[in-house]
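Re: [ENG-882] Designed sequences occasionally contain unexpected residues at chain ends

Forwarding the minimal case from QA. Structure tokens:
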């Protein structure tokens, strides 16, 4: 996955964040020292790769490696340096492709926009832009290369937003589908999950992916913040959010991941989990039983019938309600039209917990489509047409429609972003010009 610069990644390093859990081994709060392991790797100077005739030199790769180490707080070792170098090179190739596309479309990043982003990143880490850049220089990072990377990232987001804004729009039916899924999952166990995903095809095979994941687990246990490592090394869509996958519902993950979740408690980090196509690392932040209530809003048109009513009486009431139903009943008109018909009573049943409803009403409240007219159904009081007028999950954790729309829009944007970059890679001429280390 291309390197995505975000305020959180750098602020974590600047703020010298703590490990993901107090229970894990290792408490390295400081980024790796620029005078120790980070300086132990060296490359012969020269051109390593050309990307459509744009050069990537060994100096560029070393600088990107330093930035990866600085922001992820991974301690460089002989075992993990090849993976860090590979990630750095992939990020640089993507940057060259993005820069070429920005030039093609004449996208320019205003100086004030760049400065604003620098200021925001620094303030999120409790410092100023000048102090932040000074800290990076002390670590050996070329801040001109860093700001150019930031400029490219801002410009790329401007370009993708401009070209694909309409395609990232979210329809009300998509929001409804998410809300329905949340309602259906309300009673199932759920885990608040952080994820790192290593794609086997991208890194050179499943064995390489598994070994890389083992090294990342070791680094996290030694103190590297999970979120920072996820931003720099994960290839899941959640990488830009520090690996935050949100609440995961039982049964919605690949079987090996679900098996691991079933055995994990909050604060625990998984070992590498092999799945079809790659390897996951899972961190469980929290869990909940899913014991939330589903609330339904109902309206009715009813005819009173005694429990001992004859078959003829029931049949007559059924015919009357079916006749009423043929008039195009909706949630908006069912009460009024019912009260206009002799012997029929229309009423608001209000909002009720589905679990508290009588059997026939409960079935409609759970499975009936919102806006549907259901029945007639029999109860001890009589015969009823039931309008299913609304359903919601009664929990503070259920997002609003606006929040769901923003989340879906962000997912769409990220998908279009990745697809755009993938197409550029597939069309590019990328040549190796020397040894990589």
């Amino acid at each position: 996955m291309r390197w995505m610069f975000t305020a959180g990644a750098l602020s974590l390093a600047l703020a010298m964040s703590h490990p993901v859990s107090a229970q894990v081994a290792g408490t390295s709060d400081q980024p790796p020292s620029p005078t120790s392991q980070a300086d132990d790797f060296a490359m012969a100077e020269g051109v390593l790769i050309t990307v459509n005739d744009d050069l990537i030199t060994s100096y560029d790769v070393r600088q990107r490696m330093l930035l990866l180490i600085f922001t992820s707080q991974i301690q460089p070792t002989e075992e993990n340096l090849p993976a860090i170098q590979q990630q750095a090179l992939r990020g640089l190739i993507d940057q060259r492709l993005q820069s070429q596309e920005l030039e093609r479309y004449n996208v320019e990043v205003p100086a004030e926009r760049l400065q604003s982003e620098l200021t925001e990143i620094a303030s999120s880490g409790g410092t100023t832009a000048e102090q932040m850049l000074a800290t990076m220089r002390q670590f050996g990072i070329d801040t001109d290369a860093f700001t150019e990377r930031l400029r490219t990232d801002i410009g790329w987001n401007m370009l993708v937003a401009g070209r694909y804004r309409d395609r990232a729009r979210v329809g009300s039916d998509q929001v409804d589908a998410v809300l329905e899924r949340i309602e259906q999952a309300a009673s199932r166990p759920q885990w608040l999950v952080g994820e790192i995903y290593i794609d086997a095809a991208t890194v050179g095979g499943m064995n390489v992916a598994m070994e890389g994941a083992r090294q990342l687990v070791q680094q996290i246990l030694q103190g590297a913040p999970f979120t920072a490592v996820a931003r720099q090394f994960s290839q899941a869509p959640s990488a830009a959010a520090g690996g935050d996958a949100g609440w995961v519902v039982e049964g919605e993950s690949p079987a090996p991941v679900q098996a691991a979740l079933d055995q994990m408690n909050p604060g625990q980090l998984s070992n590498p989990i092999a799945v079809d196509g790659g390897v996951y690392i899972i961190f469980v932040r929290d869990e909940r039983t899913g014991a939330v209530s589903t609330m339904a809003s109902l309206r009715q048109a009813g005819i009173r019938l005694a429990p001992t009513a004859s078959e003829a009486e029931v049949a007559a009431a059924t015919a009357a309600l079916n006749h009423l139903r043929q008039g195009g009943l909706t949630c908006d008109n069912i009460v009024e039209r019912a009260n206009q018909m002799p012997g029929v009573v229309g009423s608001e049943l209000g909002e009720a917990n589905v679990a508290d409803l009588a059997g026939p009403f409960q079935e409609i409240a759970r499975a009936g489509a919102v806006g549907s007219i259901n029945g007639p159904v029999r109860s001890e009081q009589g015969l009823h047409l039931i309008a299913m007028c609304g359903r919601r999950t009664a929990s503070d954790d259920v997002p609003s429609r606006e929040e769901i729309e923003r989340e879906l829009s962000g997912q769409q944007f990220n998908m279009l972003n990745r697809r755009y970059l993938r197409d550029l890679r597939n069309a590019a001429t990328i040549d190796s010009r020397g040894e990589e280390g």
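QA comment: On inspection the terminal residues look reasonable. Confidence is low (pLDDT under 50) at residues 1-40. Proposing we downgrade this to a documentation issue.
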